Amino acid sequence: MEKIELKVKTRNSVKDFLLNYGFTAQQTNKILKNRDVKRDGKRLQTTDILNPGEDIVIYCENKPTPKYEIIFEDENVVVLSKGAKIEVQGEDSLEKLIDGSIAVHRLDRNTTGVMIMAKNKKAEECLKEAFKNGWIEKRYVCEVFGRPDFKGEKKEAFLLKDSARSEVKIFNTYVQRAVKIETSFKTLKKGAETSIVEVELHTGKTHQIRAHLAFLGCPIVGDGKYGNNKINKKFKENYQKLHCFSLKIKKINKNLEYLQNKEFVKKPTWAEKYL
After folding, report:
1. Which of 50, 80, 83, 165 could join 8 in a cystine, given CB atoms 3.0 to 4.6 angstroms apart?
2. Is there a shared CATH topology between the 2-60 domain and the 68-135+249-266 domain?
3. Residues 15-49: pLDDT tens digits?
4. Which fold has domain 68-135+249-266?
5. Are the C-beta atoms of residues 19 and 25 closer than 8 Å to each other?
6. Measuring CA to CA, which residue among 136, 84, 76, 74 is closest to residue 105?
7. Which fold has domain 2-60?
8. Active-site residue numbers?
9. Which pTM was predicted?
C-alpha cells in the first residue's frame, strides 16, 4: 500500500482533489469507498471539503503520476511541474485546475516538466514579453531511439506546420511558409538501443523537439506522432519521454524583477543521474 502526503492548494471536494491529482475515476471510487483519505488522522468522507493549507494523507495501491506539482507560488506567478495527459489550456486543463492561473507558454499534452503561469494581468504581460524576447531559457531531457553523438552543437532546420493534421514537417532547406528553427542537442548517455539527450530550445515552435529529433533519425521513445510504433511497443511507452527539467529567467520587466536569474528545476527520475 502506497502512502502519499500532500498539502491542499485550493478548496475542493475530496473526490475532485483525487481526480485532479491524477487518480483515475476507478481508483478514486475505490479510495473513497475504503475511506483511505485522512486529515488530522481522521478518515474523510466523499462529501467532506478540503481547504487550502490542510495536510492530507492518501493510501492507495498504485501511486499515480500527478497532473501537476507546485514548485513555487506567490501572488504573481505559479511555477509547476506538469504531468502527462493534461493540456495547458481548454477543458480539464491546468488553467481550469489551478485557480487564477493564466498560461503564457505551453507544453504538449504528453510532455512533462517545468512551466510558469501568471496569476494576474501584470505578470502575464511581463512573462509574455520575456518569452517573446528570448529572456527565458528552457532545457529539456529526452530518451531517443538510437545512439547519436551530439556534442551540444546548435542544429538549424525549417519547420512547416500543417494545422489541419495537427503536425509539423522538418526540412533541411527553406520551403514556402516554413519557419527557421534552432535546437541544441547533447548526448548524456548511450545505451544499447536508446540514448539520453539534453535539449535546449533557441526557437519555440510547435512540436519542434519531437519533430527535429525524428528528422535526425532518433525519434523520442513513446512519441506516437513522430516516433515509431514498433519501438514504442517494444519499450512499453505510451507517452513521449520528453521532460522540461529547467526554466531559467535571465531577464524580466521590473514588475517581476525579483524573479530575474531564478532557475526552477525538476529532474525526472529516469534521467536524474545524467543531469
Report:
1. 50
2. no
3. 999 988 888 889 999 999 999 999 999 999 988 99
4. Pseudouridine synthase (3.30.2350)
5. yes
6. 136
7. 3.10.290
8. 108
9. 0.85
